[in-house]
């Protein structure tokens, strides 16, 4: 299944380093709210903003790791467009399995 972007975002918006930066900002904001929450200032705002920001950090970190894996795979591939494991006869999960 091909992953497609629903919004017409510029290319830098989905770059792995940009996604890591956005994840780091989410962690910073989440820690700020959760520290107030665990410090005794129990408010609904600190609960949903703190845990929501940490969940957002998780999502952006996962997207960044997916992008970093894709970049490493292309760099190690040799010829452009060729996947490294396809040269060795291994099957990707995205590849169509054909019966021999």
The residue ranges in which pLDDT falls below 50 over 5 or more consecutive positions are: 86-100
* Tally of helical runs: 2
**Average of per-residue pLDDT values:** 77
Give the H and E element order. Answer: HH
Number of strands: 0
Q: Quick one: overall form? A: elongated
Distance between the termini: 23 Å
Approximate helicity band? 55-70%
Could you give a short account of the major beta sheet? none
Radius of gyration: 19 Å
Q: What structural class do the secondary elements suggest?
A: mainly alpha
Which strand-content bin applies to the residues?
A: under 5%
How would you describe what is shown here?
With 100 residues, the chain is an all-alpha fold. The C terminus is likely disordered. Helix 1 packs antiparallel against helix 2. It contains 2 helices and no strands. The radius of gyration is 19 Å and the shape is elongated.
Quick tags:
100 residues, mainly alpha, disordered C terminus
Summarize the structure.
This protein has helices spanning 16-38, 44-75.
């Amino acid at each position: 299944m091909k992953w497609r972007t629903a919004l017409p975002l510029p290319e830098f918006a989905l770059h792995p380093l940009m996604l890591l930066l956005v994840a780091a900002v989410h962690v910073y904001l989440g820690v700020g709210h959760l520290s107030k929450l665990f410090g005794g200032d129990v408010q609904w705002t600190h609960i949903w903003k703190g845990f929501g920001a940490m969940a957002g950090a998780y999502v952006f970190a996962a997207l960044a790791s997916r992008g970093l894996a894709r970049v490493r795979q292309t760099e190690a591939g040799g010829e452009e467009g060729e996947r490294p494991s396809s040269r060795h006869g291994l099957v990707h999960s995205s590849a169509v399995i054909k019966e021999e």
